[in-house]
Amino acid sequence: MKFNLKGKNVIITGGGSGIGQAISTTFAAQGANVHILELNIEHAESTVNLIKEQGGVATAYHCNVVDQKQVISVVDEITAKKDIHILINNAGIAHIGNIEKTAEDDLDRVYNVNVKGPYNCMYALISKMKKNGGVIINMASIASNVGINDRFAYSMSKGAILTMTYSIAKDYIKDGIRCNCISPARIHTPFVDGFIKANYPGQEEEMFKNLSATQPIGRMGKPQEVADLALYLCSDEASFITGTDFPIDGGFIKLNG
Ligand SMILES: NC(=O)c1ccc[n+]([C@@H]2O[C@H](COP(=O)([O-])OP(=O)(O)OC[C@H]3O[C@@H](n4cnc5c(N)ncnc54)[C@H](O)[C@@H]3O)[C@@H](O)[C@H]2O)c1
Predict the structure, then answer these.
(1) pTM listed for this prediction
(2) Among all residues, which ones are annotated catalytic?
(3) Cα–Cα–Cα angle for 85, 37, 89, rounded to 5 degrees
(4) How far apart (Å, rounded) are the C-alpha atoms in residues 102 and 160?
(5) Contacts made by residues 22-26, CB under 8 angstroms, sequence distance 24+
(6) 15-35 pLDDT per residue, tens
(7) How much is the average pLDDT of 40-63?
(8) 153 in Cβ contact with 95 (< 8 Å)
(9) What is the rounded CA–CA span in Å between residue 32 and residue 85?
(10) 224 CA distance to ligand 1 centroid (A)?
(11) Which helix (H) or strand (E) holds 135?
(12) Ligand 1 contacts CB of residue 13 (under 6 A)
C-alpha cells in the first residue's frame, strides 16, 4: 500500500477542528497512532472518537501550544512511551486588520499561537526526533507568499512559518528530519465560518461567495484536500522532499490578476 503510516507515531496540534481534524483522521486511517494536542479538549476528544469508530488509534491531550512548559510536559509524557516520527504544526488563529487595526495585544496573540506555538513544539520534540529521523509539516498560508488585504498580523506570522521551515530543514537534514510547509488558500473550515460570522454579521452568504471567488478555480478548498497533501509529504513516497513550501490554492498565487 502506498502512503502507509503503519508504525508511525504522530503529534498534531489543533486536531480538534478543520484541517487538523482531517489530517488526524486521514493519518489514522493510514495506520498512524495519532496524538492530538489541543486547547479545546472536547473537540480533540470528538476527533479521537471519530478515529476510534473507524478502527484507528488516537489520544487527545489538553495543551496550549503557547505555553512552552505545557508543551514540553505533554511531549515528554508521550515520548516516555514511544518515539514520535511525524509532527504537524497545524494550530493557528486569525486576525483581520491592517497595521492600524492591529493593536499590540492582537499582534502578540497571533504571534504567540502561530509562531511561538510551532517553535515550542519543534523545540520540545526535535532533539528526540534525531534518533530515528522524521517529518515535520508546518501549516503556512498563501499569506506567506503574497500580499493579502487586511491580514497584517496573520501574514507576519505565516511568513515566519515559511522561513522557520527552511531553517529547520537545513539544520536537521543530516539527522534525517524532513521539514516542509503547506500554504493553503481559503479552505472551508470553522476557522473561515468563524471569522465571517464575527466580522461580517448579516452578510455571511455574500462573504462566503466572495471568498470562494477569490480562488480562480471558483471555490474554497476542502480540509480533506489539505490532509491528502500532508499525507503524501509525510509518507516515505515523499522521502526526497524537504525545505519546500507547497501551495494548495486553486490557482490563487499564480493565476490571479
Ligand atoms: N482555513 C483556511 O482557510 C486556512 C488557510 C490557510 C492556512 N490555514 C491554517 O491552517 C491551520 C488550521 O486552520 P483551520 O482552518 O483548520 O482552523 P480551525 O480554527 O478550524 O482549527 C484550529 C484548531 O487549533 C486549535 N488551537 C487554536 N489555538 C490553539 C492553541 N493555542 N493551542 C492548541 N490548539 C489551538 C483550535 O482549538 C482549533 O481546534 C491554521 O494554522 C491556519 O492558519 C487555514
Answers:
(1) 0.98
(2) 154
(3) 60
(4) 18
(5) 22/222, 22/223, 22/224, 22/226, 22/227, 23/88, 23/90, 23/226, 23/227, 23/230, 23/231, 24/51, 24/58, 25/50, 25/51, 25/54, 25/56, 25/227, 26/224, 26/227, 26/228, 26/230, 26/231
(6) 999 999 999 999 999 999 999
(7) 98
(8) yes
(9) 10
(10) 14
(11) strand 134-139
(12) yes
Contact 52, 58 (CB under 8 A): yes
Coil vs helix vs strand at 145: coil
As a whole number, mean pLDDT of residues 77-97 equals 97
Site of grid cell 476542502: 222
Is the model's pLDDT at 150 over the cut of 80? yes
* Whether residue 190 has its Cβ less than 6 Å from ligand 1: yes
Whose CA is closest to 31, among 58, 7, 15?
7
pLDDT at residue 54, rounded to an integer: 97
CB 13 within 8 A of CB 38: yes
Q: Closest ligand 1 atom, CA of 113?
A: 31
Instruction: Give, for ligand 1, the residue of 11, 12, 13, 19 to mutate: max count of ligand atoms closer than 8 Å to Cβ.
Output: 19
**Ligand 1 contacts CB of residue 247 (under 6 A):** no
Ligand 1 centre to CA of 2 (Å) is 28
DSSP per-residue string spanning 163-194: HHHHHHHHHTGGGTEEEEEEEES-B-SHHHHH
pLDDT in tens, 198-245: 888 999 999 999 999 999 999 999 999 999 999 999 999 999 999 999
Position 257 pLDDT exceeds 80: no
Residue 125 CA to residue 73 CA, distance in Å, equals 11
For ligand 1, whether the C-beta of 9 sits within 6 Å is no
